[in-house]
Amino acid sequence: MVENRKSDLSEIFHALSDPTRRAILGMLVRRPHHIGELVAPFDMSFNAISKHVKTLERAGLVERELVGTFCKLHLKTKGLSDAYHWLGAYELFWNERLNKLEALLAESKPSTKPKRQKSRS
Amino acid sequence: MVENRKSDLSEIFHALSDPTRRAILGMLVRRPHHIGELVAPFDMSFNAISKHVKTLERAGLVERELVGTFCKLHLKTKGLSDAYHWLGAYELFWNERLNKLEALLAESKPSTKPKRQKSRS
DNA sequence: CAGCGTGTCAACCAGATGGTTGAGTAAAAC
DNA sequence: GTTTTACTCAACCATCTGGTTGACACGCTG
Lengths: 121, 121
What we know:
The first copy, chain A, is mainly alpha-helical.
C-alpha cells in the first residue's frame, strides 16, 4: 500500500496541534484546493504552507493529486476518523466517570485543598 | 476560573501527540494515580514523567489533587471532549464526502496519476 | 524555444520539546 | 529531630519544529 509511512496517532495529533494546519483542513473539507490557494489567508510564505501540507500528508490527513503544474489537495478522512475513534473510547468513560468523579471529589472536598502551595498557580 | 492558562485545541492535540502521554491518560482513565505510580511502566526518569504530567495539566487533560505528599492525578475529560467534538464536526462531512470524493476520483482516474515523478515516494 | 507559474528541496536560524541531573521542599515515618 | 518519601524547580543538552531564503524542476503558454 505504501499509504503513508506512519499512519500513527502521534503523527495525526501532532499534525492537528497547529492552528495553521487545522485551518488548512478547514479549507479542504469544503473543497479541494491547490497549495497556492491555501497561502493567501495566512500571511506566511508559500514554502511554510508547503511544509505544513507535507506534515498533514505524512500524517495521512491529506492526499495529493497532481493536475498539470498544480497540486490538488484532498482531505483524507481516515486519519481524522482514527483520532476521532481513539477519543471516542474515552467518551465511553467520561460520561459515567464524571458522575463518579464528582461524587468522589465531593466526598473528599473537605481535605481537598491542602496548604502545600508555594508556587503552584 | 483560572482553569488552565490555555484550554486551547493546540495544547490539547499537542499533549495527545506523545505516546507516553496517551499511555498516561490510559492509566488515569481506569483510576486516579499518583505520579510515582505512573513511572514504572515507562523506563524513564521520574522527572520526565512529571514533565509529561505537567504538559497534560497545561492542556487541561489532567487535574491534581494533593493528598499529603502524594499528588493524585485525575483525568479531566473536558479537553478530550473538546477535541472529540472538534473532530466530530469533520465526521459530519467525511461520511457523505467520501462518496462524493470517490465519485469524483473515479471520474478523473484516467488522468489522475501523471508522470511528474522525480523523487516523490 | 523562452518565460512564467506552481511547487520541491536544501540550508539555515531561533525557539520549543523531551530527556537528563542535581538541589530543594514539604509531609510522613521513624 | 532526623530520615524517607514524593514531588518541584532550574539548568543543561540534543533534537525537532516552524519559519525564512534561494536554487531548481516541471509543465503550460506564447
